[in-house]
Amino acid sequence: MGLSELLSTYGDKYLQGLLATWSMTAVSFVFVMALAVLVTVARVSPYGPLRLVGDLYVQVFRNIPGVALLIIIAYALPELRIVLDWRTCVIVTTVLLGSAFGSENFMSGINTISVGQIEAARSIGLSFTQIVRKIVIPQALRTTVLPMTNLLIAVMLTTALGSQVPLNPQELTGVVSYVNTRATGGVLAFLVSALGYALSALAISFVGNRLDKRVRILR
Amino acid sequence: MSSPTPTLSMRDALYETPGPRTRRRVRIGTAITAVVVLLGIAAVVRQFYVTGQLAPRYWSLFLQWTTWRFLGQGLLGTVSVALTAGAISLVLGLLLMLGRTSGVRPLAALCRVVTDFFRGVPSLLLIYFLFFVPAQLGVKMPPFWMLTLPVALAAAGVLAEVFRAGVNAVPKGQVEAALSIGLSPAQTMRKIVLPQAVRYVIPSLIAQLVVVVKDTTVAYVVSFPDLMQNARVLITSYDALVSMYLVIALVYILINFAINKAAVYVSRRTGAKIIR
């Protein structure tokens, strides 16, 4: 099958797939960031049980394979009477996985700040909330731009899990398996989707690098 | 209450030594959060109980030796795929890095494109590629390779970048010194840079094994009998979906946790950072 034939037959599918991948990525990433902040707050809080839960959360979702988590959410949760639609299943999976890594990024961002800065801030009379708001968060955010860029790409690649459940519209990976079960798509059918991913990743890392150069703290 | 830790982590540095009032507040907060966490656990257990998922018929299969033997066979499949893919990706990743830093323009550009491609494409897509395309071209491929090759390719892209970070970590002065005493660029790479770079990235390579193990989980797409695929077989024969998937997930988590711990341990001992 040539490129023109492929695109004229399945062009719409690919376009919908790309848009589905992008939109799931965007929605997931917003929740990833929000949840990562919450988990990180729990992990640096002074309350033992909360720290424990935060640490456990990160260890569990950092180490569980995406497919295993998706299967649990999509097929095991309904048996516990928690039914989510397919798209939500994929997004929840992506968010749980991504936020664990996001929290790790924040933690290492916080850890790059030297303890001396906190001591200095305290000695000039800043309160705890002031220290967190004016010293810790700005620096932690600026050093995490690059890791978070990589996380955004990872989140996009994780949405490929959507090919394992009947999504409508399908995302890029699902489209390829759809095309190939109907026609001999060959290398080309894959290349279209692969370029969709790879070029998106390239664009994301380009923007991320530019942003990082502007805000990076030179130590 | 809490014993002083030898290394002051940022977590603790954030807080002043608490006075009596703060200590009381922290104690109350700790109690409240403990209750909330316990309530959460109770709610989960209750949901399991209400839906009948705690019934012995869902869990008794884990007391049988045959269950674990079958899962063990699956685990063996997972391990063999992960190790083979890991070995292939080491070689490929190293070659891609060498090509990219070779200084030969077209080769470097090609290696860069290949690296970025495999890093920017989901491994599932690569697995579907090897599942469909060789068959369409009339090549019969065993499921083992339909799984191992794409996992290896995806990892190779990442490892190429890890190796490159290792090479960049070797001080420039050493390369200049090596070149100035008359070593060729190839000799410099082989004798001076690579030995140090490889040692530097060992913890990162171990950590990367986690990603490889995770990627092997979609073995069922190519129906290769790995841990997950064997678990699915058991689910259909015992009709114990929730318990089986939870146990399998736990097994994967423990394996990957152990790998991560090993990486951190080696990293602490050698002082080399883990690059992701």
TrEMBL record, chain A:
It holds the Pfam family BPD_transp_1. The chain crosses the membrane at residues 20-44, 56-77, 144-167, 187-209. Its main location: membrane. PANTHER family: L-CYSTINE TRANSPORT SYSTEM PERMEASE PROTEIN TCYL, MEMBRANE COMPONENT OF AMINO ACID ABC TRANSPORTER. Keywords: Amino-acid transport, Cell membrane, Membrane, Transmembrane, Transmembrane helix, Transport. Belongs to the binding-protein-dependent transport system permease family. It is a multi-pass membrane protein. Residues 18-208 form the ABC transmembrane type-1 domain. This is ABC transporter permease subunit. It is found in: Cell membrane. It comes from Thermophilibacter provencensis. The keyword Glycoprotein does not apply.
Automatic annotation (TrEMBL), chain B:
It is a multi-pass membrane protein. InterPro entries: AA_ABC_transptr_permease_3TM, ArtM/GltK/GlnP/TcyL/YhdX-like, MetI-like, MetI-like_sf. The chain crosses the membrane at residues 28-50, 70-96, 117-137, 143-163, 200-222, 242-259. SUPFAM superfamilies: MetI-like. Residues 75-259 form the ABC transmembrane type-1 domain. PROSITE patterns: ABC_TM1. Keywords: Cell membrane, Membrane, Transmembrane, Transmembrane helix, Transport. The keyword Membrane applies. It is found in: Cell membrane. NCBIfam families: HEQRo_perm_3TM (TIGR01726). PANTHER family: AMINO ACID ABC TRANSPORTER PERMEASE, MEMBRANE COMPONENT OF AMINO ACID ABC TRANSPORTER. Belongs to the binding-protein-dependent transport system permease family. This is Amino acid ABC transporter permease. The lineage of its organism: Bacteria, Bacillati, Actinomycetota, Coriobacteriia, Coriobacteriales.
